[in-house]
Amino acid sequence: MMTVHKISNLTGVSIRALHHYDKIGLLHPAEVTDAGYRLYDDAQLERLQCILLFKELQFPLKDIRDILDSPGFDREKALEQQITLLEMKMEHLENLIRLARTIKTTGVNHMNFTAFDTEKMDAYAKQAKESWGHTKEYQEYEQKSEGRTVQEGQQIARGLLEVFAQFGAIKEDDPGKGPAQEMVKKLQDYISNYYYTCSKEILASLGEMYASEGSMSENIDEAGGDGTAVFAAKAIQIYCSR
Description:
Layout: E1 2-3, H1 4-11, H2 15-23, E2 31-32, E3 38-40, H3 42-56, H4 61-69, H5 75-106, H6 119-132, H7 136-145, H8 150-169, H9 178-194, H10 200-210, H11 215-224, H12 228-241
Antiparallel strand pairs: 1-3, 2-3
């Protein structure tokens, strides 16, 4: 059995995130001691590895929980996909290291930009995600994004970050008051318009992901300043509870 601190050190997942996963039913500890310490065994560690794969594929936490808890979930398939993705990332990093060493010794006159190409890795990640994308929300997103150019997709993504920048501008306000609640409605409408129908249930799940200290939290804080992700999550929680 491993403590939550050991799991955090081993995987790089913060203790706060592990507590959050327990709270939302995504990853329960195998045992909680009389003193309140969470303990994890190999089964929980395997589940956490699958969670990290689906987070890498940018699934919301609720969808990850539904996938892992579904009767047809194939754990071996998920782990094989994660291994392949990690191997691709390792190869990509090795290519960049070789390029950097070449530039150091010979200069940039004959620089080869193929080392920066992530097309193969991105294509595999897309294929892996599609193999699990059985939710109606994901299917709706696929329909809405069909035919969009790369530039259009980037513009929509920038628009979403702009919404969070507006959250950041009011992050010192009360998250339950008018301006913050109006921003939550704006966020909900934006997601519904460009991605998939964003019900309060889905929005609440997204809010949990925003506060989970992952890459999404970092992107939101980069757009709106430190604390924006937590503020937005609080405002969403209040909005969805009404």
